[in-house]
Write a structure and sequence with these properties.
Number of helices: 11
Low-confidence stretches: none
Keywords: Cell membrane, Membrane, Transmembrane, Transmembrane helix
Mean pLDDT: 85
Strand order of the largest sheet: 5-4-3-6-7-10
Number of strands: 11
Number of domains: 2
Distance between the termini: 47 Å
Pfam families: BatA, VWA_2
Protein name: VWA domain-containing protein
CATH class of the largest domain: Alpha Beta
Structural class: alpha/beta
Helix content: 25-40%
CATH superfamily of the largest domain: von Willebrand factor, type A domain
Radius of gyration: 38 Å
């Protein structure tokens, strides 16, 4: 308990603790004084003297203990113990970001663990934590597209909605153009100087009302950078397929990612294309994007102190008062 208390305590005047050297000097002075006050009588025999004992003799050093504790408490009080509360105020120029996530059926493939969609959700939530001052929105797409979360700085809502994403919420397909179009629509009126879309998909464009090249041109027109991520291993990936009896069987499915299209979208909007073949590479991609798109943040730290000397000052006063009362009452010496 004392260790935990000390972990959260600062002292305004730590040099005052050098006065603790007075305590051993007080003990030395007390022992020396007691020795001088001892009287000696030479007798031929002490057999007639009975061994006597009293409570005064037992507790004769109590006054010294009270005084030592009082002085120790007073020294601690003079050192001004304080608890410190640090408060950080973060201000700066943030970036507006839309996470555009593929939720099509193929995102159930298990070349990433536990599958592509769950891995993408977890690492997108981690990315949200890396951006404390940015506004972030979430758009999901498969055969159609939908704004899941508008631009917001509320990280708890963002992460909650990201973790609640499920396959089957939208018509199946891979409407990359629709995902881009809805993402651009969320960013085009933003006053932020920097606006980016992180487009994550595992397939080729299928369906939708807006072509991917049209979506790319929309992003260019509004000065929005697109970082595109192709998710999936090389060759084939295991995908759970319904077996018709309420269960699922694993089948190998060819990985078809239109890397040429994703690279074109990224390059023409000023972004970059990445390939995530496993969980670790996807994690590194989000870290790389975080490094590339740095927000201007000013952090002001406010330190608030609460004084904690009063209990020690009170203890010193009580102990000194108690020592004085006992000295002139129960322990009073008569000449």
């Amino acid at each position: 308990m004392l260790y935990d208390w000390l972990q959260h305590i600062d002292f305004a005047y730590p040099w005052v603790f050098s006065l603790l050297l007075l305590l051993p000097l007080m003990i030395y002075w007390y022992i020396t004084r007691q020795a001088k006050q001892q009287g000696t009588v030479v007798v031929s025999s002490v057999a007639f003297i009975k061994q006597t004992s009293s409570w005064k003799k037992t507790f004769r050093h109590a006054l010294l203990v009270f005084r030592l504790l009082a002085v120790g408490s007073l020294i601690i009080a003079l050192a001004r113990p304080q608890t410190r509360n640090d408060e950080e105020l973060k201000m700066g120029e943030g970036i507006d970001i839309v996470l555009c996530l593929d939720v099509s059926g193929s995102m159930a493939a298990q070349d990433l663990l536990p599958n592509r969609l769950e891995a993408s959700k977890a690492l997108a939530a981690d990315f949200v934590d890396l951006r404390p001052t940015d506004r972030i929105g979430v758009v999901i797409f498969s055969g159609e597209s939908f704004t899941l979360v508008p631009l917001t700085t509320d990280k708890s809502i963002l992460k909650s909605q990201i973790f609640n994403i499920q396959r089957g919420l939208l018509e199946d397909g891979t409407a990359i153009g629709d995902g881009l179009g809805v993402s651009v629509d969320r960013l085009k009126s933003s006053p932020a100087k920097t606006k980016i879309i992180i487009l994550l998909t595992d397939g080729e464009n299928q369906g939708g009302l807006i072509g991917p090249l049209v979506g790319k041109d929309m992003a260019k027109a509004h000065n929005i950078r697109v970082y595109s991520i192709g998710v999936g291993t090389d060759g084939y990936a295991p995908v759970p397929v319904p077996d018709g009896m309420g269960g699922a069987v694993m089948r190998q499915q060819k990985v078809n990612i239109d890397e040429k299209l994703l690279r074109l979208i990224a390059e023409e909007t000023g972004g970059l294309y990445f390939r995530a073949r496993d969980n670790e590479s996807l994690k590194n991609i989000y870290r790389e994007i975080d490094k590339l798109e740095k927000s201007k943040i000013e952090v002001t730290t406010l330190k608030r102190y609460t004084e904690r000397y009063f209990p020690f000052a009170l203890a010193a006063a009580v102990l000194l008062l108690l020592e004085m009362i006992l000295r002139y009452t129960l322990f009073k010496k008569f000449p």
